[in-house]
Every structure is written in C-alpha cells, then in structure tokens.
Amino acid sequence: MRAHSTRVYLVNTGWTGGPYGEGARIDIGTTREIVQACLSGALEEVGYEEDPHFLVSVPRTCPAVKDSSILQPRNTWKDKEAYDRRATKLADQFASHFQKAYGGKGIDPAVARQCPGRGRQ
C-alpha cells in the first residue's frame, strides 16, 4: 500500500439510524456518492477525525452528500447513549476475537493497538 500510495476506504452500505428494527439501510444514492468520492480522489481533500470505538479515520464531509452528519454513525441514532453502548460492545468483541486469533503471534504492538477495542486496553 505504501509503495503504490494506495488508498483504502471502508464504506458502510448497511444499517444506519439505530439498531435493526429502528434504523434503515443507507440509500443506494448516498452509497454511490460516497463511492464516487473515494474513486475520484475527492476524499483526499477533506478533514478526518478518528472514530473512538473503531479507530478508523472518518471524513467530516463528503462532496455530493447533502447531509455529512450521516458519516458519523452516532449522529444517525436517536439514542446516542445506546449507540455508544452498542459500539463499545462491538469493538470489545473485535478485541476479544483478535486476542484469541492473534494473541501471542508476535504482531507489532503498534499494529495490535489499532484493533477496535484494543486502543482502550
């Protein structure tokens, strides 16, 4: 990735706005706009902030997306505390699986700290 200056994007094309049954799928038009921004390089021109649960950089804005607040999943949930509880639980599940699968395998600690949930450990 470094040798070829490759950019990698994780695009949520799934559920937003609350837990299953409350929220809805992200609409295809918005997904297309986000993917186009990835492909065109437009996301290289925006600011980012790190998600505290999943330790990924999230763009603050995205060209052509009318409401950039949707880029932060927490913003789409009515009950923000419920989002925080669920996100923490999911990040901790990632950390637990990571430990079972890769603990003791000599992974660079700086890399291991980037696993969701592990940044708090």
Describe what you observe in this structure:
By secondary structure, the chain is mainly alpha-helical. It has one domain (15-120): Phosphoenolpyruvate Carboxykinase, domain 3 (Alpha-Beta Complex), CATH 3.90.228.20. It is 36% helix and 8% strand. A two-stranded antiparallel ribbon has the order 1-2. A two-stranded antiparallel ribbon has the order 3-4. A hairpin with a 7-residue loop joins strand 1 (15-16) and strand 2. The protein is flat and about 45 Å long.
Question: Short summary of the structure?
Answer:
This protein has 121 residues and is mostly helical.
Distinctive features:
single chain, two-stranded antiparallel ribbon, 121 residues, Phosphoenolpyruvate Carboxykinase, domain 3, 4 helices, mainly alpha, 4 strands
Shape category: flat
Main pleated sheet: 2 strands, antiparallel
What's the number of helices? Answer: 4
Proportion in β-strands: 5-15%
Q: Overall pLDDT, averaged?
A: 91
CATH topology: Phosphoenolpyruvate Carboxykinase, domain 3
The CATH architecture designation is Alpha-Beta Complex
How many domains, in number, for the residues?
Answer: 1
**Structural class by secondary-structure content:** mainly alpha
Q: Kindly report the spatial arrangement of strands forming the biggest sheet.
A: 1-2
Could you estimate the helical fraction of the residues in percent?
A: 25-40%
